[in-house]
């Protein structure tokens, strides 16, 4: 068997259920400060937003929360940020604290980034890259959250598979 074939076989053998981990989740009505705290404490690139039955509604990337802390006039021209001193810049971080997770989601009608437990590493990589999502929810046939795969976890798994070359 060639190296490419061996790697393809190993990729088929490793599935989302094997690399998915249990992560904390948030609900739409939760304070965004809670989501930020959970991201920091757990070193997460984002949070999975679930409904009352633990079905994923959305993935809230940390970059979206960060974006809301920066006034829109500064987002369009990063050079303007240099005009703000550190004392006043700290005030920007208080604004997201009054928001809910729902306030941070750009579009609740967008389908959350999910895969089935038997998704391969290549499928996970494709979904993450297409959806620009650093976090993918692994769901069962009833769309109930089983776990999640972070970009870091996927890259580590791909690197381990690649070591067999």
Automatic annotation (TrEMBL):
<keyword id="KW-0129">CBS domain</keyword>
<dbReference type="InterPro" id="IPR000644">
    <property type="entry name" value="CBS_dom"/>
</dbReference>
<dbReference type="InterPro" id="IPR046342">
    <property type="entry name" value="CBS_dom_sf"/>
</dbReference>
<dbReference type="Pfam" id="PF00571">
    <property type="entry name" value="CBS"/>
</dbReference>
<feature type="domain" description="CBS">
    <location>
        <begin position="108"/>
        <end position="165"/>
    </location>
</feature>
<feature type="domain" description="CBS">
    <location>
        <begin position="14"/>
        <end position="78"/>
    </location>
</feature>
<protein>
    <submittedName>
        <fullName>CBS domain-containing protein</fullName>
    </submittedName>
</protein>
């Amino acid at each position: 068997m060639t190296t490419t074939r061996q790697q393809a076989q190993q990729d088929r053998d490793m599935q989302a259920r094997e690399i998915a981990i249990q992560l904390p989740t948030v609900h739409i009505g939760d304070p965004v400060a809670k989501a930020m705290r959970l991201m920091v404490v757990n070193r997460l690139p984002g949070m999975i937003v679930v409904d009352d039955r633990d079905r994923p509604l959305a993935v809230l990337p940390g970059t979206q929360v960060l974006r809301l802390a920066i006034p829109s006039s500064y987002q369009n021209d990063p050079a303007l940020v240099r005009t703000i001193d550190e004392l006043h810049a700290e005030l920007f971080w208080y604004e997201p604290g009054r928001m809910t997770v729902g306030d941070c989601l750009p579009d609740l009608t967008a389908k959350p980034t999910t895969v089935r437990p038997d998704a391969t590493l290549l499928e996970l990589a494709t979904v993450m890259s297409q959806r620009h999502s650093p976090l993918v929810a692994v769901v069962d046939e009833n769309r109930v959250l089983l776990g999640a795969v972070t970009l870091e976890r996927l890259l580590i798994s791909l690197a381990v598979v690649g070591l067999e070359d």
